[in-house]
Amino acid sequence: MMKKCLLAAALLFPALALAESNIGIVYPLKALQETTAVKGKMSALEKELAPDEEKLNKLGMEVQELQAKMQKEAMTLSPDQQEEMSTRGKQKMLEIQSLQRKLQGRAEAAQREVMEDMGPKFQQAIEQVAKDKKLDLVINAQAAVYVGENAVDVTEAVSQQLNKMK
Does 12 score more than 60 pLDDT? Predict the structure, then answer.
């Protein structure tokens, strides 16, 4: 009987210790997006990609116009004219796909650059915020299955700490 009580107590202590712990949660993406450094990088990226995005929109409009013209004039176009229009449409679609891949690749590269630059700073910011708020544990809120009302959301504090860091 004594062994059962000791075993129950031993199993209960970690749960009690955790219940008394101060737990913080952070939304990493939101914390990073709210920093002036990331906002600046995203603004620069938008300016860099704007001409290609504009070209992509223009190509999309041209494809739509070609399709509309082919449908409208299908009966009056010769087979050679239909083939030529179809070929132009296919070429524009290939150009659209190529441009989309380019834009996607640049966006992914920019995201990697931000994470390489901000990753270590993010960890330092979390550690500083945890110390300041006397937290025992800070977890990624998106990885948590359940977050109780006693958990402290430190996302904004982490963003502010990142802004202080150079």
Answer: no
Please tell me the total count of domains within the chain: 1
3-state secondary structure of 105: helix
**Neighbour tally for 155: CB within 10 Å:** 20
Query: Between 155-164 and 36-72, two packed helices, what is the crossing angle to 10 degrees?
Result: 110
In a domain, 13, yes or no: no
Report the predicted TM-score, pTM, of the whole model to 2 decimal places: 0.67
14 in a structural domain: no
CATH number at residue 107: 3.30.910.20
Give the residue numbers spanning the domain of 96.
Answer: 19-164
Residue 107 located in a structural domain: yes
CB < 8 Å & 24+ apart, contacts of 54-59: 55/99, 56/96, 56/99, 56/100, 56/103, 59/92, 59/95, 59/96, 59/99
Average pLDDT of the segment spanning 4-14: 47
155 domain-assigned:
yes
pLDDT at 18: 47
Q: Which ranges in the chain belong to alpha helices (H)? A: 2-19, 28-33, 36-72, 79-132, 155-164
pLDDT tens profile 141-153? 999 898 888 889 9
